[in-house]
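Good morning C.,

I know you're traveling, so I'll keep this short. The sequence:
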Amino acid sequence: MKKESLNNISAEVLAAYLDGNATMQEGSEILDALCVDAELRELMHISQSVDRELSLFATDIDYIPMTAMAASCDEGCYCSLECEKYILRRLNIEFDEQQLYVNAIQNGWQKESGTALHNVGRHLESKGLVVTRQYKATMADIATALNSGDNVIVAVDGGELLGDRMAEIKEDILVGQIPDHTVVVLSYDTEKNIVTVYDPNSSSAEDVYSVEQFKDAWNDSKNYLVVVSSKAIEEYIPRPLDLSDVELTPDLVELREAIAENAHEVWAANRYAEGWRYGLQRDDVQKLHPDMIPYSKLPEGEKDYDREMAMKTIKLLKKLGYDLIKR
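The tokens, ready to paste straight into the viewer:
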């Protein structure tokens, strides 16, 4: 593809859109252009056809956009941070607004390209609130959180949430998925089938959407849900990512054992530095532990624990869209 622009849309921006990495402004410009530019729609068709052909040779993994940039709109936009500030105000928790911005930059939560999904809620964590993150959530999960008095942030495709400007050509072309915006869900009315949200980019205090339109926008983030609670941590329910669709090649399976053994060495080294030594029985006072031995001498049950952690770490990398290449 030439680097020329088509209807003021550069090849680089179009490629970023197809990959789901375009900013909200870029996505909005592309949607506007697609509505009026037949040549651009044809170019989109060709690009997606190539992607579909290539996908026949790829592993069928339902990738998770954990590192996608929510709040990736115009320069100076901090919609993720604004959502967190909104919740702090709702909970009557004091904060220094300028310090929040400083913390966002210093900790890498806010980058020039936006806030990664996995960093949404970091300011709330720093204020002592319980923050849990979940992909593949449902409307029932949102309802449960709201009914429990929790606050809810979701990542959405901002363009889809604002309205269906692609109605004329929706049947003709599949547009990219851009989880580029965050909103606070205020209520979910199952009888009226509507969702009310606080949108930091809106001039209204509250915006109301049909559940269908809300879900269309939410689906683009793999239904990413951030629940903010002040409840006791004893009520925590683990929700690890489903990695069952990730298959590893034989060389990566072998890599599992190397990672498992090194993980044990790291654990033992840290314990050793703290004064722990080998003992037949664990003794926290004397700092004795039966696993302070070489990996090869560990019981198979302990090895299996390290192997499972190693295997799931490798699978997680692939689930997030990374490839491991042996040099």
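Safe travels,
E.
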